[in-house]
Amino acid sequence: MRQKHLQFNKAVMSIWDCCELLNECVDDSDPDLEEPQIQHLLQTAEAIRLDYPDDTWFHLVGLIHDLGKVLLHPLFGEEPQYAVVGDTFPVGCAFDPAIVHTELFKDNPDTHNPQFSTKLGIYQEKCGLDNVVMSWGHDEYMYQVMKHNNTTLPPQALFVIRYHSFYALHQAGAYKHLLSETDHENLQWLEKFNKFDLYSKSKVRVDTDEVYPYYQSLIDKYFPKVLRW
What we know:
- The structure is a single chain.
- The protein is mostly helical.
- The protein has a single domain (1-228), classed as Hypothetical protein af1432.
- The chain has nine helices and two strands, in the order H-E-H-H-H-H-H-H-H-H-E.
- It has helices spanning 2-5, 15-22, 37-51, 56-64, 138-148, 155-163, 167-170, 181-199, 208-222; strands at residues 12-13, 227-228.
- The protein has a two-stranded antiparallel ribbon with strand order 1-2.
- Helix 3 packs antiparallel against helix 4 and helix 4 (56-64) packs across helix 9.
- The longest helix is centred in the last third of the chain and has 19 residues, at 181-199.
- The model has no long low-confidence stretch (mean pLDDT 94).
């Protein structure tokens, strides 16, 4: 998947274009959301904006955190749901019981590989998540898109986007033995973000035309006009 999608040769478009393209995608793992995807993005961003009015980068994270789900779109090869959405987790070490449907790992060869089935596996304690290979998903893809296109968002923004589906860490506290000091600092922002991602979904629609100028100004501040995807 990395080889396939990290060539950044699928599309050239702006952040807002990608928000609109995401409306054509359906996340089957999100049963409580009947609204278009862009509404979830705007509801998350607006809820963060209300509680953290001075952290403008955090508002933009709310808007763009799920843009990696465009991998579900035909333009990106229409990847299957399991390869795009749902929980992410480290590979190369034992699968923690906190991972959703952990019972299914019994059929994964890594479970029976002595090199990969210990607590640390191929890693060292406090090695830092930058040195850990995560299962593929929309988090990793969007993180890589941001890096490739030289975003000026702060490191904590990239951390939130890269690990917001890593529920075993930020909900159950698993895998903390792999975290560096910097990871622990960034984790505080991820825990704050998770509250908005899960609980800002609402039937009250955000007026896209009304908020567009504000979010476009943030996009202009932190991203080039068009990105390679």
